[in-house]
Amino acid sequence: MIIRKTPAELEKMRRSGLLVWDILQKLGGMAVEGVSTWDLEVAAEAMMKDAGARPAFKGYFVPSAGERYRFVLCTSINSEIVHGMPSERRKLKKGDVLKIDTGVQLNGYFGDSAITVAIGDVGEESARLMEVTRESLELAISQVRAGNRLFDICSTVEQHVVSNGFSIVREYVGHGIGTQLHEEPQVPNYVERKNENPRLKEGMVLAIEPMVNAGKADAKVLSDKWTAVTKDGSNSAHFEHCVAVTDNGPWVLTRP
Ligand code: MF3
Ligand code: CO
């Protein structure tokens, strides 16, 4: 069942969304050569605490990993797609493509967002990868209106990514969000006709999160049970926003 939110609930989700945005802005600014992903983790946890929010990812049980995630952030670098774990030993280097994914729970409601940051010059292909991934999210957001269907979102991402010569990660998908971090429906970045294709209705909130590889789509998980990487070693990009269906069209909760 897809849980629709009242206007009052959307206002609460807005507060969670803006907090996540604020945190990601600050982390994005901090992310320069020499900084470790642990430095980002520590800063993020402090900001959440200051805001009276709970880190949404820390302690979250992920069935595919079979255990709880232990960190506030996912910090995934280059060929790492998602679920990269912050580490003191992991210092950012020039040319790194860093994905920062995080979520909060504030007043019972979740916010979840991700950005990809270039550490110095990442080269032409990775810059284009980041741009196309970001564009695919923006195009998908414009499809978030009552009367459209879920596949309008999925196909928009897929079409933009594939027509630009990149590939879509299939193992990880977007999701509904509200009083749970992951609610129905799943929001894949591709169309698979066997999946459900519900009509979008006012009050639904979707976390749309294209994960895009420069090379082939195939992913694998490292022996740490978490870090998902591209099989071919190519770079990957990820952007995510929470978007509400409203009378006035899409409302991106995770940015001003
Ligand atoms: N990338 C996931 C998402 O945006 C992160 C949640 S899983 C966790 O939905 F393990 F990091 F908590
Ligand atoms: Co998400």
**Structural class, from secondary structure content?**
alpha+beta
Kindly identify the CATH topology: Creatine Amidinohydrolase
What's the architecture in CATH terms?
Alpha-Beta Complex
| Overall pLDDT level | 98
Roughly what percent helix? 25-40%
**CATH class category label:** Alpha Beta
Radius of gyration: 17 Å
Task: Describe the protein.
With 256 residues, the chain is of the alpha+beta class. It has one domain (7-252): Creatinase/methionine aminopeptidase superfamily (Creatine Amidinohydrolase, Alpha-Beta Complex), CATH 3.90.230.10. Helix content is 27%, strand content 27%. It is built from four helices and 17 strands. The protein has helices spanning 7-30, 37-50, 124-141, 150-163, and strands at residues 54-55, 61-62, 67-68, 73-77, 80-82, 97-106, 109-118, 167-168, 174-176, 183-187, 205-208, 211-213, 219-221, 228-230, 236-238, 241-246, 249-252. The relative contact order is 0.20. The model has no long low-confidence stretch (mean pLDDT 98). Residues 57, 60, 62, 69, 74, 82-83, 101, 112, 175, 209, 240 line the site of 2-amino-4-trifluoromethylsulfanyl-butyric acid.
